[in-house]
Structures are given as C-alpha cells and as structure tokens.
Design brief:
Distance between the termini: 113 Å
Shape: rod-shaped
Radius of gyration: 39 Å
Helix content: 40-55%
Number of helices: 9
Strand order of the largest sheet: 5-4-10-9-8
Length: 264
Amino acid sequence: IQSGFEDVLECFYKDDAKKIRKYLSLMQEENIPFEDVFALKTTERSVSIFGGRINGADGNLYCDMLWFRDLSAEMLKIRELEAEKTLYRQRLHRLEDMLNNFAEPVWLRDEHLNIILANKKYADMDGSIPPAETNAAVLENVSRKLADAARETNKMQKGGINLAVNGEAKHFEVSETPFHADGSLEKIYTVGTLTDATELDAVKRTFKIHQNAHLDVLAALGTAFAIFDMKQKLVFYNKSFLNLWGLQAAFLDGNPTYAEFLDK
C-alpha cells in the first residue's frame, strides 16, 4: 500500500497537522528549517520532526527532507521524572510544615558552622536583652560554640542560656547534635534546638536551696556524718566526721572513694 504525505498528516491531531503544513511551506518558500515535537493521535507516542532542504555542492536543490524521531521512551521518562519531582515536592512541603510547627526553634548548620536551614520559630525570634543584643545574636554566640565542640567530639553538646521573651526573663537549654551529611565522614553537620527550661531551672534552684539547708543542718550536727554517692565517692562530710578520723580536709575535699577512705 502506498501512502502519501496527507496520509502521514492524518496520524496527527488537526491543529498539529496544520502546524506541520505551515512549517513545510516556510521551509520550501523561504528555506527555513524547523524542528518540533508532536503527539500521534492514535497512540500515546510522541515524535520529533525535523525539516530541512538538502542542497548539493553545486547549489542545486536535491530534496526536501523530513526526519521523524520516536520520542516515546524519552517522553515516558520525562513523565516519570515529573511525577517523581511532584512527589518530592510534596514530601518537602510536609517536612517544612513539620519543622515550622515545632514548638521550639530548630536549625541546621553546615560543615562551616553556618546556618543553612531553620524553622519558622527560629526566624520569628525577636526581643532583646541588655546590652541591646537580640535573642538571635545571643543564641548564635552560644550555639555556634556548642556546634564547634560537637563537631570536634562527635557528641551532642548542651548549654544553658538566658533570654528575654515578651519582657520576661526565661532560661533555655541549647543543644547541637552532630551527624555525617551526605554519607561523608569528612562532612559533619549539626542540628540545633532551643528548649524552654525555665520551669525545670526553677525546680533545680528550689531543690538546691532545700538541699543546702539540709546540708547546713547536717554540718552543724555533733554526730560524725558523711555521704557517698552512687559511684561510692565522698560528696559530703561534716566537721565532726573530719575530727573523728583525724583526716586532712584536702583529702576529703578530693572526693575519695569509699575504699580509699577505708584505706586511709
């Protein structure tokens, strides 16, 4: 069966066939080559059409050439990549939503200790504490040092910091946790967090006050008294204990173990 050019155009959608005819006219009348991509209407395949005039060395026209190249595999791959890109965008948006809805500021530092990513809580930090230093500046000064130590030791580092929030002094715990980025042993990033520890700090201070009061009572007792911790190290003794055994205060202040005390 012999097919003509019109039979070929029948394989394309009406508007595309019209466009191909126009390309062909421009090529034949003004010697303008063309290249474009069209879909076949009977299948999901796509083809690239290149058109150009072939001239000989003598300047004579030999023929008009149309070159059809099947792009089905390439177009399929593009669609797969587009779908994959959409999926990754959705995951990225979910991760951003998760980070931005954290109750505390969270940030990421690169191998040069520069912050390259932070959530909305970090970006919204404002207010100031004397002398005219912003919360973000104070936090950066402390957390950067912790991040440097975390990278050197390859262990999480923590520290305390006082900030003014809405005119109220608060105590926070800052942490920097190191990890190997992109699977590289040489590339160490750190994840930083800022946690409100005001209530916990108040509890600790109250406990310390009560503890010191109790120790003051024990120190005043006429009975010899000493406390060893879970590691069997001496952590407290009163004057009666020192006098009873005739020991040097320097020895007891060195936190000897229970065994070392018995040997002495």
